[in-house]
User: Fold these one by one.
Assistant:
Number 1:
Amino acid sequence: MNRLNIAFVTPLNPIPNGLSDYSEALLPVLAEHADITIYSECGTPANPQIAGQFEVRPVRQLLRHHSEHDLRLYQIGNSADHAAAFEMLRCLPGIVVLHEPFLHTGYRYMPTLRPYQRELLYELGALAPEVQARWAAETDRVALQAAPLIRRLIDSSLGVIVHSRAARQLILRTSSPRAQQLPIAVISQPMPLPPHVEPHTARSDFGWPADALLIGVPGTIDPTKEPALTLRAFAELSQQRPEARLIFMGDWPLDYGLSDLVRELNLSERVEFMGRVEPLARLERTMAACDIIINLRRPTIGETSGTALRALAMGRALVVRDIGWFSEIPAAGSVKISATAEVAELAQALHTLTTQPELRQKLGAAARAYIQTECDVAQVAQQYMTFLQIVYARFDGPIGLG
C-alpha cells in the first residue's frame, strides 16, 4: 500500500469538544500508517504530545496547501466548533467522520444564520418565508430529524465513517439519492482500557464516604439526557437506600428547573452538581469513584457517547436506554431500560444494581472485555487506513478542489 499523506481537519484542545479528545487519542496511532498534517482552529494544541509531533495549521490554510495531500479527513460533529470545516467541505471534499448524522446545532449556532438557512434550502428546497421561519425556530429533535442537514455532506463527500449501524441507517434514510452509492464504513470509536480501579479507592479525592453508594451522571446537563427523570428515579431509590448519592459531573448551562426539583424531592443532601470536571484525567477519576453510571438519551440523533464508552472501559455498571447506538452495546455489559421507560423502570433498574454488587462486577467485567475487543485504538487506526486506501484507489491521484 502507498503511504498516504492526509490533511486531518478537527477540533483539538483547548477547544472543549469531545472530538478534541477523540482526535488526540487517534492521531498518534494513525500517524504510524500515514503522513498527517492537522488543520484546526485550536491555535497551539494544549496536548504537548500533539503539539510536538504534528504540524498544526488553521483550517483556512487548507485552501493553499490542499495539493500537498492525497486525502482530506474531516472530523465532523453537531457543534459550531466545526464552522470552518463546514465551509471548507463545500469546496474541498474529503472523507468525513460523521460523529452525529444531525447538524442543526452546528449550523444554527454559527456566527450568522446564513449557513443554516443555506443548508435548509439545500436539504428541503425553496420554502415559503413562514415555513422557513418555523424551521428556524424549531427545537424538537424528533421534528428536526426529518431534515438532518447532512444532505450536502453526503452529496459531496468521497466517503463517510460512522461509529454505529444506527448512524449508517440514518444516512441511508436521508433524501440524498447518492447515499445508496456512498462508501460508508462503520468503525468503533476508540477508547483506551485504563487500569481497573475499585470505586472506594478514588473517593477520598472528592471527600465522598468510602462506604457510600455513588451513582454518577457524567456529561453536559441538558433535557435530552433526562436529568429530571434521573432525579425522580433516584428519589424513589433513596427511600430504600438512604446511603445512596447522585453526582452530576458536567456543564450546567441552564437550570432547566432542576434546582427546584431537587428541593421538591428533598434531595439537597443527597445530590451534588459538580459542574464541568477538568481535565479529562480528573473526570475519569470522578467516574471511577462511582458504583453505577447513568447515560440516558431521548431522543437520540445517531450519536455515539464517549462518556458511555469511558464508563464501560472503567468496568462500571452502565444504565442506558435501548435506543440508537446504545442498543448496540452488548446486553452482558450494560443495563438497558426500554426506549419508552419512565421513572418506575429506571428506579427498578437502579434498585437491582444497588442491591446486587456481584451483578455490578459481572457487568463491569463484560464491559471491559467489549472495549478491549471493539475499541482498541490500534485496531481502529488500521480500520481507518483500510477504508482510506479503498476510497483513494477509486481516484487516479490527489483529490483537488471540488
Number 2:
Amino acid sequence: MYRRSQAFTLVELLVVISIIGMLTALLLPAVNAALESARRAQCSSNMSQFGKAMIAYNTRHGNLPGRINLIKSDPTTANVTEQWVSWVAVLLPDLERNDLWDRMREMGVCPTSQGGRNPGEIGNLDVLICPSDVQTSIMESAQTFVVNSGFWDVGVTNTGKGEQSDFKENGLFHVITAGVPDTLSGGYISPMDPLPLEYISSHDGTPATIMLSENIQAGAPIDPQILNNPRGRKNNGWCLSLSPAFDSIVWVNNPNTQAPINRDKEAPMENSPLFARPSSNHISGVNVLYCDGHVDFLSEEVPYVVYQALMTPHGRKCKLPPDGTPANTIFYNYILKDSDY
C-alpha cells in the first residue's frame, strides 16, 4: 500500500518561511514600541526621583541648588578644601546617596584652583540616565538630564558695574558662586542668589515651569579636547560645566539661533545655545520635569513661544542680560494655556 511521505515539500517549506517572515514583520514594530514605552516610563520614573530630591533640597536649604555650587571637602583630609560641583552632586544626600556624597567630598574629584581627580572614580548613577539614551549609559559619570538655567548668558562678564549674567525671572539654576570664569568673554560670571521654589509658585506657578529635561547631546567636558568628539559627554555627572551648553537647557530671544526640540540629535555639541534645548531618543517629544514634581511628555512640535513661557518662572518680567532689556514682546505678553503643552 502506498504511503505519503511525512516530510515537507520545498514549496510547503517556503510557504511556512514566508508566513513566519510576514508575522515577524507585523509583530516587530509592536514589540519595539512596547519596549520603548517601557524605557520611556523608566525614564519618567528616574526624572520623578529628581523632582522629589529637588523639593527636599529646597525644604532643607530654603532654595534650589545652583547650576554651579561651591562645596568644602572633608577638612580632616589632605585633599583640596573647595570644589566646584554641579547640581547633581549637591542633590546626592536627597537621593539617599550619602555614600557617594561623602566619597566625592573626601576624594576631591572636581576642578578647583588646586586641581582635582577624575569624576569617573565615583562611577555612574543609574537615576541620571534615561534607558533610551544608549550612548550616555556607557560613559563614566554621565547624565541624560539637564536643568533649566534660563536665558543663554555666556559672554556676559562681571564688570563690577552691577550688570547681571542672568536674572531670576528668566530661569531656575544659575551660577551661585564667585570666581567661575566665562568661557567666551575671558571674564567671570556674575554670581546670583539661589532661587527658592516659593518664588516660582508666587508667579508663573510650579506646574507650568520646567525644572529639568532630557538632552541627549548634553555633557560637561572638563578637558576642552573632548569638545572635538561628537557627543563627548564624559565627567558631567558630578562636576561643573563652565558653559550652560553642556549641562542645561536654555532659551533665547531669537528662536532661529536654537535647534528645535529633537532635531539634529547626532550633531556634535558646541559652546552655543544651538543644542542647549530638550532632546531625546523618544518618538515625537521629550520627558520634562516641572517644578511641582510632576513629569509630562512635551511634544517636539510645541511652539517656541510656549517653550519660552514654560522655561521662565516670571515670564512677564523677563529681561535680557546684562542691562535688563525687556525680552521679546511676543513672548513677554504670551499667556500659557493648558492646551499649549
